[in-house]
Design goal:
binds ligand C2E, single chain, Diguanylate cyclase/phosphodiesterase, 10 helices, alpha/beta, 284 residues, binds magnesium ion
Length: 284
């Protein structure tokens, strides 16, 4: 009895795995279609000054406007695209779209709204052509290059021998800013902070989330802010959700705030209306 049970279970699992493989292939095919048919959109989440009122930066966050399934978040398709090389095509699309939008805002307002773009390490080619693509795209739009920020996680930078190091140097040498995303949860060495010209540290939401209940979270956030100010690196607190967290961050003199307490990611049109149009009326 137990033997047949075991076999059944085995068959059951292999059936599931086969189904998952088919499902995966189907999604990959759909991502190709999505790229061809313009189903991806960029949402923008404003990043606020410490007062929680002024906005001087935004993070571009990809969404998939699926014809049947509606709006799909990046966690549901980016990991799969990373495994299959499609992340390069998605990354190229994101770069062009984000630079296009940033340029439009720049020409509307005459002011720089810094726009950051998430880059997965798997979209960096060994030859570093992607760095030239970034510089070229900014130049083509006549956009000051320090308008654009590339967000990478610590893990991307952990290997000093990797060609990515050289490429990050070339990026910052050409004026494009570098932000470390999800800071504090990745690789534990801080050596890359000295090696590279980092502009922004984004403190991971998990630290911000626990500040109100956990003294050690406050201590960590304080230490990060102190270190960053000595290194002349800006600090963004990610995932600020409560006024209590906001108050603590004000006491700690954090530079910038991002989170649902202030605003969720929104379509480009809404961002323009709320944060760019008011700037244009000030100018005229
Ligand atoms: P991330 O770069 O750390 O982005 C922050 C995520 O936290 C976003 O989720 C944002 O909507 C969410 N968030 C912001 N404020 C709050 C808050 O107060 N509370 C909570 N609970 N969440 C908040 P989203 O848009 O689902 O993106 C998830 C991740 O997908 C991003 O994490 C990033 O790693 C990746 N991603 C997004 N867009 C792109 C892209 O264009 N390219 C690549 N390679 N990855 C992307
Ligand atoms: Mg990010
Ligand atoms: Mg710089
Ligand atoms: Mg993050």
């Amino acid at each position: 009895l137990s033997k047949s049970k075991g076999r059944n279970r085995y068959e059951f699992f292999s059936y599931i795995i086969e189904e998952q493989a088919i499902e995966k292939r189907r999604i990959l095919e759909e991502i190709r279609v999505a790229l061809n048919e313009d189903q991806f959109v960029l949402y923008y989440q404003p990043i606020f000054d410490l007062d929680g009122i002024n906005v001087s930066k935004a993070e571009a966050l990809i969404r998939w406007q699926h014809p049947q399934h509606g709006l799909i978040g990046p966690n549901e398709f980016i990991p799969m695209a990373e495994q299959n090389g499609l992340i390069e095509d998605i990354g190229n699309w994101v770069r062009e779209q984000a630079i296009h939008d940033a340029a439009q805002w720049y020409y509307m307002s005459g002011q720089i709204m810094q726009v950051s773009v998430n880059c997965s390490p798997l979209q960096f080619d060994r030859a570093g052509q992607w760095v030239d693509d970034w510089i070229l795209a900014c130049n083509k739009q006549g956009l000051p290059r320090d308008t654009m920020v590339i967000e990478v996680t610590e893990n991307t930078l952990m290997d000093p021998e990797s060609p990515i190091q050289q490429q990050m140097h070339r990026l910052s040498h050409n004026g494009i800013d570098i932000a470390i995303d999800d800071f504090g949860v990745g690789y534990s060495s801080l050596a890359y902070l000295q090696r590279l010209d980092i502009d922004i540290l984004k403190i991971d939401r998990s630290f911000i989330q626990h500040m109100e209940t956990n003294e050690s979270s406050i201590a960590l956030v304080r230490a990060i802010i102190t270190m960053a100010s000595h290194l002349k690196v800006q600090v963004v607190a990610e995932g600020v959700e409560t006024t209590g967290q906001h108050q603590i961050l004000q006491q700690l003199s954090c530079d910038y705030l991002q989170g649902y307490l202030f605003a969720k990611p929104m379509p480009k049109e809404q961002f323009t209306e709320l944060y760019i149009t008011p700037l244009t009326s000030k100018v005229s």
